[in-house]
Amino acid sequence: HGICGVLGKLLDVPEKYVTAVETCLGANTNVVVVEDEKCAKEAILYLKENRLGRATFFPLSIIKPKNVMFEDLAKIKDFDGYIGTCDTLVKYDEKYRSVVLNQLGNVIVVDNIDTLNKVGKVIQYKYKIVSLDGEVSYAGGAITGGTSKSGNGVMNQKYELEELKKQI
After folding, report:
1. CA neighbours closer than 13 Å in the CB half-sphere of residue 127
2. What strands, in cross-sheet order, belong to the sheet with 143-144?
3. What's the predicted TM-score (pTM) here?
4. 14, 37, 41, 107: most buried, per Cβ within 10 A?
5. In terms of Cα–Cα distance, which of 75, 81, 135 is closest to 111?
6. Which whole number is the average pLDDT over 91-119?
7. Residue 163: which pLDDT band, with cuts at 50, 70 and 90?
8. CB under 8 Å to 167, separation ≥6 — which residues?
9. b/e per residue 135-158 (b: at least 16 CB within 10 A)
């Protein structure tokens, strides 16, 4: 009892933002959201007793939201190519607000790698910045990009399923 689901399935993500959101979340797409720490503890004991592996849990009762400071947003909000903070690009039940903000509230989304680099400089690399294509500038300045196997994520499966239904 008390298990809400994996984070990626609790979010409704418009197709144009799926790559950015999945990049933001990474492995945390599959973290299990639970009501409270008691539920997490019970689930962990169950996994241990049955030797079923490990899992990470986000207890709604204790997880703390994160955000981009207002002063930093003010510096970049008028940039050509700035899209928003990642939490504003997804829909979710208000019940999950703290976990969504914890994972996406302090991530900035931009249109491309050029904007990513400009925004990073202006905010002195204080936050993770993600482009629509999945390039990432991490807090501190490291940058990741290139190609990856797209379409494998939990969120993208919804759109793939809809496309397959249309084809059938």
Report:
1. 28
2. 82-85, 107-110, 128-131, 136-137, 143-144
3. 0.86
4. 107
5. 81
6. 97
7. confident
8. none
9. bbbeeeeeeeeeeeeeeebbbbeb
Specify the pairing of strand 32-34 against strand 128-131. unpaired
**Residue 120 structure tokens:** 């990073």
Predicted local distance difference test score (pLDDT) of residue 162: 73
The DSSP H or E segment spanning 4 is strand 3-6
Going by C-alpha positions, the residue among 164, 168, 156, 160 that lies closest to residue 22 is 156
Cβ proximity of 27 and 51 under 8 Å: no
CA dihedral 73, 77, 83, 85 (to 10 degrees): 10
Q: Does the pLDDT of residue 157 top 80, yes or no?
A: no
Mean pLDDT of 19-43: 96
Q: pLDDT for 137-146, tens place per residue?
A: 999 999 999 8
Using alpha carbons only, give the angle 14, 123, 91 rounded to the nearest 5 degrees. 20
Q: Is 127 left (phi over 0), alpha (psi -120 to 50) or beta?
A: beta
Q: What would the mean pLDDT of 66-93 be, rounded to a whole number?
A: 97
Residue 155 in contact with residue 92, Cβ under 8 Å? Answer: no
Structure tokens at 93: 């039940």
How far is the C-alpha of 75 from the C-alpha of 117, rounded, in Å?
14
